[in-house]
Design a protein that fits this description.
heterodimer; A: mainly beta; Ubiquitin-like (UB roll); five-stranded mixed beta sheet; 7 strands; B: Oxidized Rhodanese, domain 1; five-stranded parallel beta sheet; elongated; binds zinc ion; Beta-grasp_dom_sf (chain A); ubl conjugation pathway (chain A); cytoplasm (chain A); isopeptide bond (chain A)
Chain lengths: 110, 460
């Protein structure tokens, strides 16, 4: 909460696909600088990133299209450097500088 | 027959060691000389049976290449008929075949490409009662459908019948493709290196409110076409290389899967932007996890059976669209499209503001005279900003509309849901000035306008 000037940040890219970009200014790629630690001083993980995105990047009020009950909503895949987040520890994965996190909504049309 | 194929004990017609006819050589030579293909690969295609479920934007391009490549038996499942709005993407149909059953139309087209395969029409939709009886007749399944309930059903049956599944989907400007259940391992045999099923990758369907179909959201022909063609590419590769089968010396499906047949499960996504060149088109190959230990369908303690599926367990419809709470506005806040039209035509309606909340692309097709376009998404965003930052509530209304405090507002949308939410939000913000101003919803949206007032209206 306190304004410490030296709050360490890290640079990552966040991508949205499958229609989710609509909720984020219609932009598919965002280069972000996010806090390296959460408010408890723990390294920022994916759960932190999701709430951070809702608070800072999402202008559309329809947050329920992105999160439900504080978790990513069903039907959205999370990819960490192009790998399913299941292979990386899901919400607990600690984000590294330079990481690419991709959120894809699964499609059903044809 | 040579010793190593004798064990397959297939009917002589199905021999993987027969001579090709002159026509077959002529017709397939250009793919047969591709390294890795050869006569063996071609005979595997000729002796195989592929089921294409859905004869639409994915199924049409997929089927063209499956037929062209010489797959011996090709089944097509679809209960729909050809409509003119299909033709920009469903390239297996034609203007001259409008109104035909899609399966018949597509098969007519395929026979023109290649008369040699045996084409089997299934002119109805796949459902839990017929799924297993149809799928069991084939070696590989291509999911070219357009709704999640059918996608989960197809995957479940493919797990139980041990059929490889090539699945694709597409909406608007994005497409996705994944090979599942290939090679098929027995249900309950859990090992991370075994391939996932649809449920392993997509545990739960998205809530219906967040789902859009091609009919509602639109679809670019080349995007869905690309995914259908890629599906055919995967299916041909799997069959021609026998990647779905146990080692050729045995017919034992429980034999361990050879390493060479285990592929890294990969989800391919294709995307592009229409309105800006900032984001170029992109293909991404995403690494997916293997079979999931606790998967409902293929996992360790799965109780899924073919009998269960037939008798409604699981229930695919409720799984994919849980009952929603339907909130309707009180009758005094609503007016039917015909009543609005009649009172307005008789001059009995006071000067008012008519807001149309459809997306601007829909609005560009046409609107009710005098309507002002305020797209729903942008409206919600502005409403949230006013709520957060304060400011006069009337700021949410279009600037070009000069309004008195009691000028009524009517709201119309596509089908009558967004407009109700808009009316609620406007009141919540205080735009009704404590009841001084009436704010009303036009029941059923522009769909109702077309049905009740103007049948020539270009409703999409
Ligand atoms: Zn599974």
């Amino acid at each position: 909460m306190s304004e410490t000037a030296a709050e360490p940040k890290m640079a990552i890219t966040v991508d949205f696909s499958g229609g989710l970009e609509m909720l984020f200014s219609n932009q598919r790629r965002h280069a972000l600088s996010i806090p390296a630690h959460d408010k408890d001083g723990k390294p920022s993980n994916i759960a932190f990133l999701i709430s951070h995105l809702c608070k800072t990047l999402m202008k559309d009020p329809r947050t329920d299209l992105f999160v439900l009950d504080d978790h990513i909503r069903p039907g959205i895949l999370v990819l960490i450097n192009d790998a399913d987040w299941e292979l990386e520890g899901e919400e607990a994965y600690e984000i590294q500088p330079g990481d690419n996190i991709l959120f894809v909504s699964t499609l059903h049309g044809g | 027959m040579t010793a190593d194929t004798g064990a397959a004990s297939a009917a002589p017609m199905k021999s993987n060691d027969r001579r090709l006819t002159y026509e077959e050589f002529e017709r397939y030579s250009r793919q047969m000389i591709v390294p890795g293909m050869g006569k063996h690969g071609q005979l595997r295609l000729i002796n195989s049976r592929i089921l294409i479920i859905g004869a639409g934007g994915l199924g049409c391009p997929a089927a063209q290449y499956i037929a062209g490549a010489g797959v011996g038996t090709i089944g097509i499942v679809d209960g729909d008929t050809v409509e003119i709005s299909n033709l920009h993407r469903q390239v297996g149909h034609a203007t001259s075949r409008l109104g035909w059953k899609k399966v018949d139309s597509l098969i007519a087209h395929l026979k023109d490409i290649n008369p040699l395969p045996n084409y089997i029409p299934h002119p109805f939709h796949l459902d839990p009662q017929n799924a297993a009886d149809i799928i069991t007749q084939y070696d590989l399944v291509m999911d070219c459908t357009d709704n999640p309930a059918t996608r989960y059903l197809i995957s479940d049956v493919c797990v139980l019948l041990r059929k490889p599944l090539v699945s694709a989907a597409s909406v608007q400007k994005s497409g996705q493709l994944i090979v599942l259940n290939c090679p098929p391992a027995p249900q309950g045999l859990v090992d991370k290196k075994y391939p996932p099923c649809y449920r392993c990758c997509f545990k739960k369907p998205p809530p219906p409110s967040s789902m859009v179909s091609c009919g509602e959201a639109g679809i670019m022909g080349p995007v869905v076409g690309m995914m259908g063609v890629a599906q055919a590419g995967e299916a041909i590769k799997i069959i021609a290389s026998a990647l779905h089968l146990p080692p050729s010396s045995t017919n034992d499906l429980t034999a361990p899967i050879p390493e060479r047949n285990l592929q890294q499960p990969t989800l391919l996504i294709y995307t592009y932007d229409l309105e800006s060149a900032v984001g170029p088109y992109s293909f991404r190959a995403l690494r997916m996890a293997g079979r999931r230990k606790n998967c409902f369908a293929c996992g360790e303690n799965s109780t899924l059976t073919l009998e269960g599926i037939k008798t409604g367990n699981p229930n695919y419809v409720t799984f994919c669209s849980p009952p929603t709470t339907d909130h309707a506005l009180p009758p005094e806040d609503r007016i039917t499209a015909s009543k609005y039209h009649e009172t307005r035509a008789r001059g009995e309606l006071p000067a008012h503001l008519l807001i149309d909340t459809r997306e601007k692309e829909h609005f560009s097709f046409g609107a009710i005279d005098g309507a002002i376009n305020v797209p729903f998404g942008r409206f919600l965003m502005n409403a949230a900003a006013i709520k957060r930052d304060g400011g006069p509530p009337d700021q949410i209304l279009p600037a070009e509309a000069a309004l008195g405090d009691d000028t009524p507002i009517f709201v119309v949308c596509r089908r009558g849901l967004d407009s109700q939410e808009t009316v609620e939000k406007l009141k919540e913000l205080g735009v009704d000035h404590g009841g001084k101003r009436k704010i009303m919803d036009i029941v059923g949206g522009m769909k109702a306008w077309k049905d009740e007032v103007d049948p020539t209206f270009p409703f999409v």
